Each structure stands twice: as structure tokens, then as C-alpha cells.
Amino acid sequence: MVKKKVFITGVGGLLGSTLARRLLVKGNYVVEGCDTFIGGIQSNVPDIPLHEIDILDTKKLKDAMKDTDVVFHTAALPYEGLSVFSPAIVAQNIVGGTVSVASAALHNNVDLFINCSSMARYGAQTPPFTEDLPTHLKYDSLNISNSCFINSCFLETIASSALCAICSVQ
């Protein structure tokens, strides 16, 4: 049986590293990943080929993703506090990073691209969140102290999801 090659962005983070370990246990996959360790932790990464690449560097991503079958895009900056004070940095990382990773995947004719999102896409709705919930904000339920955080994360997450949907149209 030929193993599928999986590439995971943000492989040093909780989601990316957990995913990498689970795929390795299954045994049907060759797993590689990338991280800059701005928010991830190098010791989280299992024993896989690791590319220390910024997801905004499309050229390096194209090289690293050569012969990849599946991409899991889990990379993101840690939002806490940053989105309020530097929403442009968060937007560049979330939206620009997703465009860069998706572009590298398209360049390499990757069979499957999975964009891992966050709960920010659901805005101020009441948990538990499910995939069938609408992705909109209820501005009347927000107060001024948290509206910048929710709006910033929400907008970048929705924009990234929309870009992925556009890229998947054939």
C-alpha cells in the first residue's frame, strides 16, 4: 500500500501536533510539517521532517509541499490580546497565510486541502458550537470591551474560510 503524504502547517501547536501524532499511529501516512514556533512549541512536534517556514513564504511552502497528497492548515498566531492591539498582523497571518498555503497546495496539485478554523467564526453565539450554526455576529449581544477581539478574529476566520471555498470550486 502506498502511503499518502500529509503536510501540516502549525505542527508545533496543539492541533497540528496532535493531528501529526494520530496520523503517525494510523501508519498509513507520511507526515511532514512546518512551524515558526511563534506560538507553537518545538517539543510538541513528533519525529517527522520539520520545515521551519513562515506560512507567508509561498515559495518555500511550494518546495516543502512537493508530492503532498493532503494539507492540513492549522497554523495561526495566538490571538489572545494580539488581535485587539494589532488586528493587521492577525489579518495578515490568518488571511494572507491561508492564501499562501492554499496557493502552494494548488501549485503542487494537492488532492485535499483542509483549513482548520477556530470558534471565532461563530461570533458571540452560545456554546456548544456545531458545524451547522450560522457564521455571523449578533452585535447587540456584544459589549465594547470584547467587540474588537471578536470582530477581528471573526472577520479573518470568515475571510479565510471563504477563500478556501473559492479555491475548491472547479
Summary, kept brief:
With 170 residues, this protein is α/β, with parallel strands linked by helices. The chain has five helices and five strands, in the order E-H-E-E-H-E-H-H-E-H. A five-stranded parallel β-sheet has the order 3-2-1-4-5, with helices on both faces.
Write the layout of secondary structure elements.
Blueprint: E1 4-9, H1 14-26, E2 29-34, E3 50-51, H2 58-64, E4 70-73, H3 82-85, H4 87-107, E5 112-115, H5 144-168
Parallel strand pairs: 1-2, 1-4, 2-3, 4-5
Helix pairs in contact: 2-4, 4-5
Primary descriptors:
Rossmann fold, five-stranded parallel beta sheet, 170 residues, alpha/beta
Summarize the structure in words:
The chain has 170 residues and is α/β, with parallel strands linked by helices. The protein has a domain at 4-119: Rossmann fold, CATH 3.40.50.720. 41% of the residues lie in helices and 13% in strands. The chain is built from five helices and five strands. It has helices spanning 14-26, 58-64, 82-85, 87-107, 144-168, and strands spanning 4-9, 29-34, 50-51, 70-73, 112-115. Helix 2 (58-64) crosses helix 4 (87-107) and helix 4 packs parallel to helix 5. Residues 137-155 have low confidence and may be disordered.
